[in-house]
Amino acid sequence: MGAISAVLLSQLRQGDAAVLPSDGYQLLPALIERLTGYGVTVRTAPTGEDAQLAPLDALGERTKLLWLETPSNPGLDVCDIRRLAEAAHARGALVAVDNTLATPLGQRPLELGADFAVASGTKALTGHGDVLLGYVTCRDPRLAAEVRAWRKTVGAIPGPMEAWLAHRSLATLQLRVDRQAATALDLAGALRDRPEVTGLRHPGLPTDPSHRVAAGQMRGGRFGCVVSFTLPDKDHAERFLTALRLVDDATSFGGVRSTAERRGRWGGDAVPEGFIRFSVGAEDADDLIADVLRALDTASATASDTDTSLGTDTSSGTGTDTGTGTASTGAGD
């Protein structure tokens, strides 16, 4: 969040206008509230189908900054960076892209026309879940100096240990990203024919609504490590997560260990109760996919057993209607 704040708060002033995604990182609404309090006009729109063009047109030359997140988290929609950057620049606005899901190996926003590329180094860049870090890159030395000055002023400077951990992780970045992207695509393919799975999303799937745009701007077949899908309801999703053996029920993504979560437990994201965000790690692909399919079978079998056990006891003239649920608490990311 420090990297996102560094760009937005170093570039926007009272009276400026900005366009941000409505389906982006979970803490963006809190930052939008802060910007509004500073006198910045903020308009939002979804990532898919380049919908941010509409508020960009409406605000016109008042727009100082267009913020994109592609692929979006957690919905995995994709927008055309080059098209939106050209439209923003024509109105005199800067363009920043949150590149966390794609990584620098999967997508180069600056080469597609963006002025800033921003990402969480906590996720795939470092890949081990042991460092809190963000980063900003840009071509213009003046913009870089403004971000650097904001960072210095608020003290958002990484310590030596964090810098060392990030440097250590870069040595395996390509190995991890390539393995995770390939396995994520395989997993998405294995989920396509599951009857209990709906809303399957992964930009690498040829059938995905975002595939055409993603294939035109994401590099080397690296469409990211995240797969999202929806199970029938909250309880079904929780049973699936409990049945997984190789996968941690945890938030965040991009690490060498696969994680999955029912995203609706945190609130803040406009997703169904059974929505799963699945981050593919570096495990053996066959082992991981087998574990996921087995967990889906277990969750569905348990649902069937529960349905069979519920009903009315007509012999005694009384009936019962019972249900069970689970609760989970934590912090989202």
Low-confidence spans: 312-332
Distance between the termini: 10 Å
Share of helical residues: 25-40%
What's the main sheet like? 6 strands, mixed
> What is the total tally of β strands?
13
Question: Helix-strand pattern, N to C?
Answer: HEHEHEHEHEHEHHHEHEHEEEHEE
Class per helix and strand makeup: alpha/beta
Number of helices: 12
Radius of gyration: 22 Å
Q: How would you state the average pLDDT, rounded?
A: 91
Query: Spatial order of the strands in the main sheet?
Result: 2-1-3-4-5-6
- Please state the overall shape, judged from the principal axes of the Cα atoms: globular
Beta-strand content: 15-25%
Describe the protein in words.
The chain has helices at 2-11, 28-37, 53-59, 81-90, 103-106, 121-125, 141-154, 160-170, 173-191, 211-217, 234-243, 285-309; strands at residues 17-21, 41-45, 63-69, 94-98, 116-120, 134-138, 198-201, 226-230, 248-249, 259-262, 275-279, 311-313, 318-320. It is α/β, with parallel strands linked by helices. It has a 6-stranded mixed beta sheet with strand order 2-1-3-4-5-6, with helices on both faces. The protein has a 5-stranded mixed beta sheet with strand order 7-8-11-10-9, covered by helices on one side. It is globular, with a radius of gyration of 22 Å. Helix 4 links the parallel strand 3 (63-69) and strand 4 (94-98). The protein is built from 12 helices and 13 strands. Keywords: Pyridoxal phosphate.
